[in-house]
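Self-study notes.
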Amino acid sequence: MSLPVNIEQILNGQTVEWERVECKQGWNPEDIVHTIGAFANDINNWGGGYIFIGVAEKDGIPQLPPVGLQARSLDGIQKELLNLSHKIQPYYAPIYQPYMLDGKHILAIWVPGGDNRPYKVPTTLGAKGQHRYYVRRGSSSVMANQQEERLLLEMAKRIPFDDRVNHHSKIEDLHFGLIRSFLEEIKSDLAKEAAHMPLSELAQQMRIAGGLPEALLPLNVGLLFFSDKPDKYFPGAKTDLVIHQDNSGTVFTEKILTGPVQQQLRNVLSFIQTNVIKEKVIKVSARVEVERVYNFPLAAVEEVVANAFYHRSYEQDSPIEINCFPDRIEVLSFPGPLPPVTKAILKKEKRIVARKYRNRRVGDFLKELRLTEGRATGFPTIYNSMQQNGSPEPVFDTDEEYTYFLAVLPIHAAFMASAEELTEKDIQILSYCVKPKKRTAILKKIKLSNHAKNYQRYIVPLIEKGWLAYTLPDTPTSPKQEYVTTEKGKQALKQ
């Protein structure tokens, strides 16, 4: 049975944290059942983990190429795995796949966080073994202490929202094409098998469907990634992207982006990269090389936006709000961070490592698609990319009740002056209005219709900057109203 992940990317540390990966050079069923129990209990809501048999490790990091397993041993190990599942209370069956890596046989075991946690596993497989809870502490599987046991029992009452069955949908609401595209993009071996599998079986293997076999339903994460209109089920699963012409907040254009989470995220980033991010070449005296800077470094924008998609609540109806002002980008999502991250920590810490995740399954899919970091490097990436670009430090904020999370990326200082620079249409309008002109004529000159939104976008900003003035200032809505370039506007033209 093929896994719906890219095994080589996981082993190379490209998609998940090392704490979620355990490698064993050989087969040791007692160690394995402890690790299965710890990953299935998923005390940190990481989304479980992966075990690789036939791969040595050093300091918690896989050593490649693998040592491998004897081909003849694979069937026996898989039979023992099946027996181990019956020793777990309640019953739990991980998903596993024999895999050929660098010419060597290994066994990959996927252990998602279990729906019926907490799980107990035998301390030893001998006759004196007792069933106990196991958890992950760092990169080790250990017996839970009393505090961890209490936490596991509390967590049993709560299944993360993205991992819950959606009772207002049906299995046919999952789009087969979107699922196959995902598997092909991450280069999962399951992509080939999927072509010959019924949707219900594929959805179960992907763990994006659950419930009774006779009444299989999509999980929320399945609808977020693999339905055409997630906002049909989650009204807030969309993004409000606003491009402001000035800092007043009154002149703007707005786009509402919808669709599967991964497409929505990519469309947001593509729009910002095309329409917002700009490059400037600066000649530094006494140096041959030129310096290239950006108003907003793309790496920082990608991390801030992806973070909003990953950590927001899809139970709330509020969309992600992205406001692009001339001097900053603001990304607002709801609610705020999970404890222990606080307002004070956000203000002073540059490396924030979350140990609790609101959407563990959403995060796993985004990591597989390489749309967000898998190694807790999001905040350092933002700070580093802003610093390398010569930009001011980012600002992160929430309130005392954790009702929102706000990330602000200030513009590079070299672009502050350019906020006052003339666009091509500004030049056309100001040149044309050296002698007074009516609104209809002005918009016709720049090849636009006499529509209110065109007036608000192209004429009003020039008035607010003092470059264009009313000829009848006391009656701005008069049908005789005309517009004329001011002395300030003429100076801007000369510059």
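Second protein, same conventions, sequence then structure:
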Amino acid sequence: MNLSPHSPFSSKASQLLSWGHWFTFANIGLVLLISSSYLFADKSPTSLLGWFYMVITWISHTSFITFSAFVLTIFPLSMIFPYPRHIRGMAAVIATAGICVLSLDAFVYFQLGYHLNFSSLPDIITVLWKTIVGSPVITSILSIGFVLLIFALELIAGNHAWRHLDKLKCLKFPRYATGLLVSCFAMSHSIHIWADANTYFDITKQDNVLPLSYPTTAKKLLARHDLLDIEHYQQATEIHLDNTQNQYQLPHSLPSCTSSNQAVTVLYFDDPLALEDFIQDKPELTAVPQLIQPSDHQDALFNLAFGLPAYYQTANNPHPSWDPNNHILALQQPDTHSKNVNANNPPPLISVINGSTNNMTYDKQQYYFIFSLAEPKSDVVISNTYYTNIPTLQNIMGFKQLQDITYTLLAEHFSCAKLAEATMIARNLTHSRREGVNFTQGVLVALKKDRITLVKRDGSYEHISGAEGFAIEQKLDVPFLIQSIKTLKKFSVDTSTK
């Protein structure tokens, strides 16, 4: 890799080329350290092979990107402008800029679940702005300090490599390191080809983790040479979205739920303007953005009442199956004029009322969760804002679904976590997990951090930002979707085999 110390090409350009290789080696170590944050952004592999693949891919892919950056920037500059002092300074600036971009990408991926791209710029700006506004002084000090630290390390690495170039040329380290990196690169692609051919999701689910990662797939490579069973591959990766052959089945024995906490009134409005009129002059209500809900009103109300995706919605759902006596929840829909509450039973913990068709007397001493349904002709899902004075539901970052609201109220506000876990497909908003699933209008809705994936029955799909709603160009994450479908069918019993 390095020029021989006895090479006749002893010009400044050849010396700079040799120096550039050592400078790149130093940066590979620094980039490996920073890029290790990607490995903790998602769920860890569950198998030994998955861990091995993750490590060798991280080493080889990160090294490849770093070396490619050297070939595309510092190397041509060394040939065109062979002045050591200037090249070392420019290389330090270029390397610092590259590492800062990598660090920004790692931060965005950790927060939003996707890498830097032009379509996500508005959302990236929003995340950065919230971070800066949250603690402007600390954020500014840390950011400036990080850039200066990286620049100082680059100058030290560049100057040290130049001053000790003769000694470094005599080392055998580059040969072994180069062999290791090439071996890792070859093994990672070979393992991925095998995993893709055998639908080994513990490996293929890592496809989108590292930036600029486009691993070789078995479908294209092996099928070209008639080495892949296409039918088996399609069956293993097929996404079944049909819910006509499934029946909803809950556990036979459910945990009891009794709570002395104050009841909650859920108000929903058919018209967003009516919601705006209602919340005026109510400063005690906190506005919380990014409530993701289906545009279909029936599906949205089903999510809220049952704590389940509309995949389980049938004509035989008069009330939540986890609340057969209606002690917990009273649902008053537009076509219902009573709360279906038995006079002999205690009042419900949660009352769901249509604020557009009922004259509500607002009492600021009571607990409220207030939102509006989607406007007509909306997309499959929408993102809007809810208002609440319930401490548990305030200051919740990231996306929220209506079933998450019901789950969190039951688990946290009313201390019935076991009942919520046993009967709902949702998440506790007070926890850090940022994945979710829904089903509406025949479309699978998979949520991961800020990314919403919509998959139709015909296999077509699109990624959109949960915060801003713009389209995101990204490869379909099949392993994540398969896991989402397994979660969706938690209470499903296939009746086609009966």
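Instructor comment on the second fold: The chain has a mean pLDDT of 80.
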